[in-house]
Write a structure and sequence with these properties.
With 147 residues, the protein is of the alpha+beta class. It has one domain: 3-Layer(aba) Sandwich (Aminopeptidase), CATH 3.40.630. Helix content is 32%, strand content 24%. The chain is built from 4 helices and 5 strands; from the N terminus they run E-H-H-E-E-E-H-E-H. A 5-stranded mixed beta sheet has the order 1-2-3-4-5, with helices on both faces. Helix 1 (11-24) packs across helix 2. It is globular.
Length: 147
C-alpha cells in the first residue's frame, strides 16, 4: 500500500470514492459530482490536505480530504475533515496518521474536526485517540433536501 499526497490525476478516483461513501450511508440530497470535483480541486491547495492510498495495482482505494478555515470562536484556524473513506480495510490508517502529523505541524490550526458515523467501529475511535483526537461529541445534522 502506498500513501501519498493527492494530485490532479487522482480527482476522478477521489470523486468516485466520495460518491461511494455517501451511497453507503445516503444523505437526503442529490449527489453533485461536479461540486465534488470542484471541492477536491480546492483541496489540492497546500493550505488544505488531501492524500490517497493506492493498492499494489496503482488503484486509489482510500482518500482523506480536509480544509482549513478561520475559526469562529478564536484567533486561529480550524481544520475540518470533508472526506474519509476507504475501500480496503486498513488502507486509511496511514492517511489518518499523515493528517494528524500535518495538523500538528501547523501551529495556526487550533482544532481539527473529524465527524464519525454513529455506528463507527470502536477500534477506529481508539486509533484516533492514539493520534491525538480526544474529545467525543454528539453531532446533530440538518440537511436540506435537494430532491
Amino acid at each position: 500500500m502506498i500513501s501519498r499526497k493527492a494530485t490532479y490525476r487522482d480527482i476522478i478516483a477521489i470523486v468516485d470514492i466520495a460518491v461511494e461513501s455517501v451511497m453507503r450511508d445516503p444523505l437526503p440530497v442529490t449527489v453533485d459530482r461536479e461540486a465534488m470535483r470542484e471541492m477536491a480541486m480546492q483541496c489540492l491547495n497546500p493550505a488544505h490536505f488531501m492524500w490517497v492510498a493506492e493498492d499494489e495495482a496503482g488503484n486509489v482505494v482510500a482518500a482523506v480530504a480536509a480544509m482549513t478555515q478561520k475559526s469562529f470562536w478564536y484567533r486561529g484556524l480550524q481544520c475540518s475533515v470533508l472526506l474519509y473513506y476507504t475501500r480496503k480495510p486498513g488502507a486509511g490508517a496511514a492517511l489518518l496518521r499523515e493528517l494528524a502529523r500535518w495538523v500538528k505541524s501547523r501551529s495556526g490550526i487550533k482544532v481539527a474536526v473529524l465527524e464519525l458515523e454513529p455506528n463507527v467501529d470502536l477500534r477506529m475511535v481508539r486509533f484516533l485517540k492514539r493520534l491525538g483526537f480526544g474529545r467525543k461529541s454528539i453531532n446533530m445534522t440538518y440537511v436540506r433536501s435537494a430532491l
